[in-house]
Structures are given as structure tokens and as C-alpha cells.
Design a protein that fits this description.
Aspartate Aminotransferase, domain 2, about 350 residues, 14 strands, alpha/beta, globular, seven-stranded mixed sheet
């Protein structure tokens, strides 16, 4: 049986022999004077403000920048990644009673957004080699009630989009890409999030493009964008929704997913540096993968041939105890810890506070 490990580094224990691994900490997010100046200008400028109702200002600027970067027609910024997922699902027409297939291995927001639509999450198996959803398991779970498939690109590693998109077309299903971890990842040279019917990103403070809190939904379908605005963008409906029938819902459907303009401002300044950060993380990941390639008992999750990782939100290592004569994981972890490597078992930890609760 395989187990997922989260790998980090820890400080030496006083009085003990020096560990082989020394601790190097890099604070995240990386903020500099450009972020401070941009936020100050938004707060104090003549066109500034801390609430923007109509999606203009830095919110609209960020949306335009992301459509150009990703190569999509429409982008809707939201207040977090979960609301982006809800907007995307609602945008493609997921209704109460529908079923949406989602992988077993993901953050709870993937399934939670489905429930927010009144729909039913149907869990499929995840491929232990990639940690992404298994297309064969997806096919087995399609029923007459299935409306969509949610593809999660776990830890920035793109899932098998060829198989999922073909399956979606064959069964007339919508494809929603959860790209919360994967800004900068691509499949056959095309940005993830632009291959399905809708793509959703997280701009939470620990992600590769941090806004503090924020999300982004993208699509090429104007009807999807209109429905997303009617769900959560009440101030934008009368001026931006193209569908005459939907424009009459001027106050929306009671959900407000309006992003904070200061978050959009931070996202814009951070966007100038995201490619450099992805490249630095890519170099570190490649070094780690190469170093572990011949180590018995651990495996780096497989990256499929047409894919390029991105985001690098986290790195998970698969522990294979059978390759070490059944060595208990606790013994394995303690041995690494003695050398300065802080490893924890990880069902789905995403931050320091989560990790500490999942060590055992």
C-alpha cells in the first residue's frame, strides 16, 4: 500500500549531532515596495476605493491581464477560489439533483462547491501514480444524472485532459478544471483551465499568485460568464451581462462574490513576478525529483508526457513500505527527522497549521 508524504525541513535538536539537512526558510508570499505603492495608490488615489461594484479599476484590469495571459475570452475575478468553483459550476448549468464527478483526493472545496449548487458529488478513484483522477474510474461513475466532471490538477500536476475531454464530449458532459494549485501548468502547450468548459484558480495567500484572498473563473463561453455574474456579481449584471433574460436579475441570486479591489491590486503586482517564481520552483522540484530517482522506498508522482507542471503549490512523495521490507512509516519518519527532514503523512494538508495536525 502506498502512502503520501509531505516533505519539509526542520531545525536541529539542541545537543544532538548536526543533521544532514539544514533548515532554509523562505517567507511567502514575497512582497516588496511595488506591492506597497500599488495598494497605497489604490487607497489614496482619485480613482481609488476599497469597494468597486461594477468590476472596473484593478478588478477589470486583472481580468483583462489574465485573459491575455491564459488565452481565454472571459475572466471573472471572485473573492476566493471556492467561489470561483461555485461560479463555474453554476455557469455551466449544474442544477439541484445533478451529479458531478470529482476525485477522492482533493481539497474539500472541490466537493463543497458542487453541494453549493444543490448537486451531488460523486467520488471517483485517484491514480496513485499521478495523484490525479483516474479516467477509467470516472467512466464507471457516469449515469443519466451526471452533468459535469471536475478535473483537479493536484499540486500543479496536470491531470489526463485528453481522456477526460474526449469522455466529456462522448457523454455530453461539461468539464470544470480546478486549477487552484496549477497556475503556469499546461497540457500540450495550452494553459490548464482553458481546455475544459471552465477553469477556476485560487489566489489565496499561499498560492503561486497570491492576492491574500481571491479567485478567478475563466471561460470562452459568454453564457457561462453571464451566469457566473448573475450568481455572484450583482453590481455587474446590468452593464455586463449580455443575455436579456438574465439582465433583469439586477440583484443577482443572493450570493455576493465581489472581490476586494486591494486584493486585485496585489494580484496585478504579483503577476509581474509569477513566471520567475514558477521557474525557481520548477528548478527545485527537478533537483528533488532527480535526487530521489534512485532512492528505494519513495517515488515522486508521475508527470504525464504532454504536461508541464505549474504552480508547485506543494510536493508530495509516495512512500512504498514494501520496498523497505515493510518498514513502518513511523520508523521511516523518525529516521528522516533525525537527519533534519520534517516529513508528515498527508491526506490533504495545505499549510503549516494543517500539517501539524496530521503528523500521525
Amino acid at each position: 500500500m502506498s502512502h503520501r508524504l509531505e516533505v519539509g525541513v526542520t531545525e536541529a535538536v539542541p545537543g544532538a549531532l548536526p543533521p544532514l539537512v539544514s533548515r532554509v526558510v523562505e517567507a511567502w508570499p514575497l512582497l516588496d515596495e511595488s506591492d506597497v505603492k500599488a495598494v497605497s495608490a489604490q487607497l489614496l488615489g482619485a480613482q481609488g476605493g476599497i469597494t468597486i461594484y461594477d468590476g472596473s479599476g484593478p478588478i477589470g484590469e486583472f481580468e483583462r491581464a489574465m485573459t491575455e495571459r491564459l488565452g481565454c475570452a472571459y475572466a471573472v475575478m471572485t473573492n476566493n477560489g471556492t467561489s470561483a468553483l461555485h461560479s463555474g459550476l453554476y455557469g455551466v448549468g449544474v442544477r439541484p439533483g445533478d451529479e458531478v464527478i470529482v476525485p477522492t483526493y482533493t481539497w474539500h472545496a472541490s466537493a463543497g462547491a458542487i453541494v453549493s449548487c444543490g448537486a451531488i458529488p460523486i467520488f471517483c478513484e485517484s491514480d496513485p501514480a499521478t495523484l490525479n483522477l483516474d479516467p477509467r474510474s470516472v467512466e464507471e461513475r457516469i449515469t443519466e444524472k451526471t452533468r459535469a466532471i471536475m478535473v483537479v490538477h493536484m499540486w500543479g500536476n496536470p491531470a489526463d485532459l485528453d481522456g477526460i475531454v474526449e469522455m466529456g464530449r462522448r457523454h455530453d458532459l461539461k468539464i470544470v478544471e480546478d486549477c487552484s494549485h496549477a497556475l503556469g501548468a499546461s497540457w500540450r502547450g495550452q494553459a490548464v483551465g482553458t481546455i475544459g468548459d471552465v477553469g477556476c484558480y485560487s489566489l489565496q495567500g499561499s498560492k503561486v499568485l497570491p492576492a491574500g484572498e481571491g479567485g478567478l473563473m475563466i471561460t470562452d463561453d459568454p453564457a457561462v460568464r453571464d451566469r457566473a455574474l448573475v450568481l455572484g456579481g450583482s453590481g455587474r449584471i446590468s452593464g455586463q451581462v449580455g443575455d436579456d433574460d438574465l439582465r433583469r436579475y439586477t440583484s443577482g441570486f443572493g450570493v455576493k462574490y465581489r472581490p476586494h479591489p486591494l486584493a486585485a491590486t496585489i494580484a496585478l503586482t504579483q503577476l509581474n513576478r509569477v513566471d520567475d517564481w514558477n521557474e525557481r520552483r520548477r528548478e527545485r522540484f527537478d533537483r528533488l525529483a532527480a535526487g530521489l530517482a534512485d532512492v528505494t522506498g519513495v517515488t515522486v508522482p508521475r508527470v504525464l508526457d504532454p504536461a508541464v507542471r505549474g504552480g508547485y503549490f506543494g510536493v508530495r512523495i509516495i512512500y512504498e513500505p514494501n520496498e523497505l521490507d515493510g518498514l513502518p512509516m513511523r520508523t521511516f519518519l523518525d529516521s528522516l527527522g533525525a537527519e533534519g527532514v520534517d516529513c508528515v503523512t498527508s491526506a490533504m494538508s495545505c499549510c503549516t497549521s494543517c500539517r501539524s495536525t496530521q503528523r500521525d
